[in-house]
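Data availability excerpt. The first of two example chains:
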Amino acid sequence: MILDERTGAALQTRDERNNVIARSEVTKQSMHRILFVLVLFFTSSAFAWPWSSDKKSAEDEARIKDSLLQVEVRNLQREVETLTRIRMQKADSLEKLDAKHWSNRYAESQLTEEHQNKTRELDGRYSKLSTDLGRVTEEVMANKNVTEEAEEKSKSEEIAFDALNTQVKLSIEKTLGDVAGDYPVGMNKRLLNLKRASAEAEKKVPNTIAAVQGYMADLLARHEVTYTQFYGNEVSQVGSRPDVNVNRLRLGTVFLGEVANDNGDVQALLRSGALQGKVFEWNANLPTEMAANIKAAVNQTGSVASAATDAQATIVIPLDVLQNKAIKNSITDAKELTWTEEFKSFFKKGGIVMYPLSLVAIIALLLFLERFVMLSYRGHLGRRFTKKMDALVAEKKYEEAANLCLKKETSLAMVLFAVLNKVNDTRENAERSLQEALLREQPKLERRMGLLAAMGTIAPLLGLLGTVTGIITLFTVITEVGTNDARVLAGGISEALVTTEMGLVIAIPVMILHGLLSEKIEKITSELYVQSTSLMNKVFGKESK
C-alpha cells in the first residue's frame, strides 16, 4: 500500500509539471503575437506617411489607429500580466509540488531504510528462531522418544500387573472352588480370607498385594491344619443331633475323631472317595470295634492332657493314616438303600452331564408318545370303515362315501376322499388328486421322526462327553493328590463310565422305539397305496390312462 501511494503521488506531480510547461508555451505564443502587431503597426505607419495626400486626415487616421493599437497593447499588456501572474502562481505551485515531491522522496527513503532495518532485524530474529526451533525440535523428539519408551514400559508393566492380578484371581477362584471339598477344619476362616482376597482383586483399581496376602494367609491356614495336632472340647453335630459338646482329637488331616460328652457317641471324618463335592464326610455309623478304639484313643489323649506330665505317651489311633483301605465299605452297620436313593446316588456320580442326558430321555419319551398317539389316530385303518366304504362304492353312492371320509379325518379317509372328489372327472385327474393327497399325508405321518432318531444318536455322544470329562477330572485329582488312595482312582473311573452307561441305556430304547414307529408308518403308507389304488380301479375301472 505504501508503494502504491508513492507511485500515485509521483504520477500526480508529473502531470502538474506538464500542465505548467504547456501554459508557459501559451504565454510565449501570446508575447509573439503582441510583438507581431507592434511591428505591423510601425510598418504601416512608415509606408503610409510619404504617399498621403491629406496630411491631416492621415494624422487623424494614424491617431485613431494609434489609439486602437494602444488599447490593444494595453489589453495585451493586461493579458501578459495576467499570464505572468498565472505563470508565477504555477511556478510557486510547481516549487511547492517539487518540494513536496522531494519531501515525499525523503520520507520514502526513510521508510525504505526503516523497512530495510526491520527486514534485517526480522531476518536476524528469523535465523535465531530457526536455530531455536531446530534445537527445540530436537529436544521435543528426544523427549518424545523418552515418553514413548516410558509409555511402552508403563504399558508392559501394566500388562504384567494385569496378568499377575488375573493369575491371582484365578488361583483364588480355584481355591474357593476346592475349599468346599477340602478338609473341613478351619473352613470358615479360610473362606473369609479368600473372600477378602477376591474382593481386593476384583476392585476397579485392584489391590493385588492385599489379594496375595489373603491368598497366602489361606495357604498358611491350610498348612497349619496339615502339620499340627489338636485335642480339646468343641461344639459339633453328631449324627442328626446339632450343638453337641464333644472331645475332638485331630492328627493333621489324616485323622479326626469326636466323642460326645453326654452319651459317648463316636464319629470320625473319613474320605468319601468322590472326586468332586464332599471329599470328606462325617460317619457316625462305625463298626462297634472301630468306634470303641476311637473312643479309647480320644479318652486316653484326654487323660494324658489332663495329667500335665512331661512323660511322652504313645496313643494308638484305629485308622489307616493314608486312608487307602475302603473303611466305609467295611462298615457292618451300613443300612440298605432304597431304589430311589440308589438312583440319586447313581445320578450324582455321573456329574453335570447327567442333566442333559435326562433332558434327552424326557424329550425322546415325549416325542415317542406324541408320534404314537398321532399314528394311532391319523393312521387308523378300521375294518368297519373299509367294509362300509366298499359297500357304498359298490352301490355307486359316491357322495355318501365322500361324506363318510370327511367325518373320519384319518390319512386313509383323506386319500380316499381325493379319489371320490374326482369321480365325475377323468381317471388322469383323479390320479393327480390322489398323488397330491398322498404327498400331503406322508410328511404328516413322518413328522418328528428325524428328531427322535437324533435323540437316540445324541444320547451315547453325551455319554462319551461325560466319560471324557470324568477322565479329565480323574487325572486332575491324580495330579493334585497322587495315586496313594485307590478309592480315588476307582471313584474317578466309575464316574467316567456312569455317563456312558446312562447314554447307552437311553439310546438303545430310543432306537428300538424309533424302529417300531418307522415300521408302523411304513405299514400305514403301504395300506394307503393299496386302498387308494383299489378304490381307483373300482370307480374308473381297469382301463388305462
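And the second chain:
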Amino acid sequence: MKSLYPITKTFSLKHYGIKNATMHYQLSSEDLQEEIVQKGQGKITKSGALAINTGEFTGRSPLDRFIVKDSITENKVWWGKINIPFDQKAFDVLYDKVTEYLSGKEIFVRDSYACADPEYQLNIRVINEHPWSNMFAYNMFLRPEASELESFSPDWLIVNAPGFMADPEIDGTRQHNFAILNFSKKIALIGGTGYTGEIKKGIFSALNFILPTERNCLPMHCSANEGEDGNTALFFGLSGTGKTTLSTDPKRKLIGDDEHAWTEANTVFNFEGGCYAKVIDLSSEKEPEIYSAIKKGALLENVVVDKNGVVDYTDSSITQNTRVSYPIDYIDNIKVPSKGKTVTNIFFLTADAFGVLPPISKLTKEQASYHFISGYTAKVAGTEAGVTKPLPNFSACFGAPFMPLHPKEYGDMLMEKIENTGAKVWLVNTGWTGGEYGTGSRMKLQYTRAMINAALEGKLDNVSYIVDEHFDLHIPETCPDVPSEILNPRNTWADKEAYDDKAQELVNSFKENFKKFE
C-alpha cells in the first residue's frame, strides 16, 4: 500500500468486493501527478498544472443518472426525467460486475469528506480506477489531517470505474455509462465515463437529499463569498453564467464556488475543498485569481496543449466545457474555514442569449421564488449538438440535475430564509446586450462586477427604479461605474420592435416552463 500518511490503519478492498488489487491509499498530489505522467495519461503544462483528457465524455450525462428506488427514496424523490429510478436488484448485480472488473487492477483509494461545518460532515471513501480521477477527488473534497484518518469511518462510498462498460439490455442502464446513487447502501456507482464532474456531483446530489430531509438544512447550487463587514453573498447560476468568476473577488473572501448549504442557525458552509472552474477563453486580465491558480497540483481537463506545454484557452475543439480543478487554498483570498453567516444579498445569474433581460434588477419576494423555481439561462449556438440558435434553458433551483426532491421543497426553504434574514435578491444578466446572440455583444465583465459591487455596498438602495413592461422587473436608473444607457436593455437595441418581440418570446417560454410547477 503506497500512502501519503504514516498511519497504522489498514483495510482490505475485499470488503467492497474488489479482490487481488494493488491499492494506492491517500497518495499526495505530487505522487498522483507522477503516476499519471508515467502512465501516459496526462502531460505537464508550462504553468506546472497537469492536463488530462477525460475521453468520450467531457461533461455530465443527465439521462444516465439514476437513483435506486427503495424504501428511503420511493415517496420522497421527485421521479421523472431528472431523477430516473433504478431497480435495487439490478444495482446489486451491476455493483458486483464493477467490482469484479476492478479486481486485479491497480486501484487508487482516498478518504476525504464533504461539508466544512463539522456538525454536518459527511465522510467519503473514493475508489478510483485512474489516478487522475483520484487527483480530482483530492482537489475537490475536503482533506483530512493524518490524525483524523486513523479513526476515519466512511459514511458514503464512491466507486468510479471509467473503463467499465455496462450492457444496457442486461444491466438496466440506458447506454454503457451510468452514475447511480443508492441511499440505502450509501454508494455512488459511476462507470463508463471518465468525466470527473460525475464524482463531485454524485455527492452533491446525495447531500441535496440528505440535508433537507434529515437536517432541515437548505442545499444550494451556488457560490458564496464574504465581505469585510462579515456579510455573506450567494451567487446562484448554471454553468457558464459566471458563478465561479463573480464570487472570486479580490475584495471579498471566497467561501466556495459551487456547492453550499444554509443552516437553521443562518450560517452558510461550503461542501467542498476545491474549485472546479470553466476555463474556456480564460485570461489573466479577465480572471486573474483563477488564472493564477492553474499551477502544479491543478488538474486541467480537455484543453488543447501545444508541444511546448502552452495551453490555448480559446480552443474549444475538444469541448466548450474545458475545466480546471484545484484546492481552494490556491485562491489567495479565501475564508478559513469555508463558512459564512449573515446572508444579506442573493444573486441569481443568467446568461440571457436573447439579450432582453436587464443586466441587474431587484426582485420582490414573489419574483425571487418564481425565478428560483424557473432557474433560467440560455444555450447558445455551438455549445451542444443541434443547437443552431439561442434556446431558453430552465433548470429549477439553478441545479435541477442534482436535486432529488421536488423544486418547491427547496423553493419554500429559500423563501423562509429570505423572510427570516431580509436578504435582498437580484437578477443579474451576464449574457447579451444590444441584441441577441450573433447580433449583440456579451455584457462586459467589468460592468457586471460594478453592478454587483454596487448592490453589495448598498449603492442601489436609494436610486430610482423603473419597472420593465415585459418581465415586471425593477431596473435601477443609475449605477456607479456603469453607463446608464445599458441598464434598460430595450435602450440598447436599435430595433425597438424587435426587442419587444424577442422579450415577449422569452416571457412565453417562462410561462410555458412554469406550468409543470403549478
